[in-house]
Design goal:
alpha/beta, 2-enoyl-CoA Hydratase, Chain A, domain 1, Lyase 2-enoyl-coa Hydratase, Chain  A, domain 2, 2 domains, 6-stranded mixed β-sheet, 4-stranded mixed β-sheet, 10 helices, 10 strands
């Protein structure tokens, strides 16, 4: 059995340097079941461990990116008389769906091909970059379901869009198109539907050709870590990291390539 055969709700393929995850429940607008969530995490872990992979692209099959939780799952969660158990404060596990994406040591691009609503929006927000098709749209939807800003959206949206825009998006739950999302900082790039995946792939291919994966991973770690740190803390931690990299093999190769006027050849991270 090939790795691709191990999945039912997603499609997973690797073509150096990109791992592509396609949500594959188009008849349900790629809504998440517990099995879907498990398969996405398993595929992301496999991609993170694979040396061929420099970055991960997540998209949806059909006309939706993801409409969020499947209706049956949502009914099951909201009809329970007992609230879910909260993650212990001392736990190293981050609460919220897809929060683990911020800890994956490789870039994650959400290639949003259609509607991203509720949990589907969280998947896009927890990705490092968001590329959107002109057919894409975004809505928080939580408050319209009697819920609050869930799964870290109260932390993410203000940092991307500003406080007042974040509150507007969360309170009103209006659906916005891709261009509006780009204008307010929610989306990084907008392209034609037929160019969406090639744009995401081209980005990662360029990254693989110019930047060392170890430095990409460390830069991602520092950026997320320092979002909540004061400047002195960030500067001290960055200095420790930069001192360890400056005499490392990637820095040596980068300097040699510059002097030789050639493209650098950096090592990958992961298993063979």
């Amino acid at each position: 059995m090939s790795p691709a055969d191990e999945y039912r709700d997603i499609q997973f393929e690797i073509e150096d340097p990109v791992a592509l995850i396609r949500l594959n429940r188009p008849e349900k607008l790629n809504a998440f079941t517990y099995d879907t969530l498990s398969e996405i995490r398993r595929a992301v872990s496999a991609a993170a461990a694979d040396r061929r992979v420099v970055g991960i692209v997540i998209t949806g099959n059909g006309r939706a990116f993801s409409a969020g939780l499947d209706a049956a799952v949502l009914e099951q969660v909201t009809s329970s008389a007992t609230p879910p158990t909260s993650t212990p404060a001392e736990s190293d596990t981050l609460p919220g769906i897809f929060s683990y994406l911020t800890q994956v040591p490789k870039p994650v691009i959400a290639a949003v091909n259609g509607v991203a609503a509720g949990g589907g929006l969280i998947l896009a927000l927890m990705s490092d970059l968001r590329f959107a098709s002109t057919a894409a749209s975004f809505t928080t939807v939580f408050l319209k379901r009697g819920l609050i800003a869930e799964h870290g959206s109260s932390w993410l949206l203000p940092r991307l869009c500003g406080v007042s825009r974040a509150l507007d998006l969360l309170w009103m739950s209006d659906r916005i198109d891709a261009e509006k999302a780009r204008q307010i900082g929610l989306v990084d790039r907008v392209c034609a539907p037929e160019e969406l995946l090639s744009t995401a792939r081209d980005y990662l291919e360029q990254l693989a050709a110019t930047s060392p994966p170890a430095a990409i991973a460390e830069t991602k770690r520092l950026v997320y870590r320092h979002l909540g740190a004061d400047l002195p803390t960030a500067l001290k931690e960055a200095e420790i990291s930069q001192n360890s990299f400056v005499t490392g093999p990637d820095a040596v190769e980068g300097a040699r390539a510059f002097l030789d006027k050639r493209a650098p050849v950096f090592g990958r991270i992961g298993e063979e």
